[in-house]
Amino acid sequence: MRDVRRCDLLSAHRRPAMNYSSVMVHVEDNEVGMARVRLAADIAARFGGRVLGVMGSPTEAPATDGDTSGAMLGEAATLYQDIGATRVNRAEAAFWEVANATTGRFEWRGRTGCPREVVIQTLRAADILMLGQRRVETASIEALDPADLLMATGRPLLIAPSHPERGPIGEAAVVAWTDSPEAQRAVLGALPMLKSASGVHVIEIAAEGALSGAKVRTADVADYLGTHGVVASAHVVRSDGSARGEQIIRFAQTARAGLIVAGGSGHAQMRDGASGGVTHDLLIGAPVCLIVSH
C-alpha cells in the first residue's frame, strides 16, 4: 500500500506549467505542407509560443562520370544551387502567406543545404518539431524521415498525417505506454498537449500473463499525469495477437482521440523486436497526430 504524505510546498495545480514556447514546423510548398503550418500556428497560439518554419533544399549536383568537363561541372553546380535557392524561396513565400493570414509570432529558418542537417541544426531553437508522415511515393527532395530524426535529435517529434481524422488540440488523447525511457520522455514532451486534452487514456497492450503488471504501470502513469492537472484514466488492453501498433490505432479511433503519444525506436530497433514494430506502425499508419520521443 502506498504511503502518501503531503510534504510539498506547492500543490500540483500551482506548479509552473510546461508550455511550448517554440514550435518548429517542417515546411513543404504544397497543400499538405501549408495545412501543417496552420496546425503548428494553432498549437503555438494555444501555448503563447512562436512558430519557426524550417526546410532545407539540397544544392549538390548528381554525380557524373569522369568524362564530364570542368566547365560543365561548374554549370551544373550553379544550376542546382539556383534550383535549391528557388525552392527555399517558394517555401518561404508560402509560409509567410499562411503567417500573414493569422495572428502570432513567426520566424523563417529555412536555407539551402541537406534537408536533414538543416533541421537537426535548427532544432536547438525549438521545443518540438512538427513534420509529416513519410510517404515514399509522394516524397519531395526536401522530405524528412521521422524514424531517422528520432535517433538524431533530442526533441519530441509531432508527426501529422496528411489528413488527420481529428485535430490534436482539445480532443481525447491516448498514451501508448511501454515501460521504457522512450515512453517516459514522450509523455514528458507531450505534457502541454496532454494538459489541453479533453481526457487522456493511458493504455498498455499486454499478454494474458502480464495483465496485472500492466494495470499497476498504467495506473502509475495516470496518477503522474494527474499531478500535472491532466484528467487521465488507465486501461489495460489484452493482446489479441495482432500487431500492437494496430491495436493502439484501433483503441484511439474508438476513443475518438486526436493525439497518440508513444516512445519511439529508431531504424535498427524497428528491424528487431516488438517495440520497433509498434513505432513503425504508428509512424506510417497513425490516422491522427502522433508525438514520439527517443
What does this molecule look like?
The protein is of the alpha/beta class and 294 residues long. The chain folds into 2 domains: 22-144, HUPs (Rossmann fold, 3-Layer(aba) Sandwich), CATH 3.40.50; 172-293, Rossmann fold. It contains 9 helices and 12 strands. The chain has helices spanning 31-46, 70-100, 115-122, 146-152, 181-196, 211-227, 244-254, 267-270, 273-285, and strands spanning 22-26, 50-54, 56-57, 105-108, 111-112, 128-132, 157-160, 172-176, 199-206, 232-238, 257-263, 289-293. The strands form 2 sheets. The chain has a 10-stranded mixed β-sheet with strand order 4-2-1-6-7-12-11-8-9-10, with helices on both faces. The chain starts with 21 loop residues before the first strand and ends with a strand.
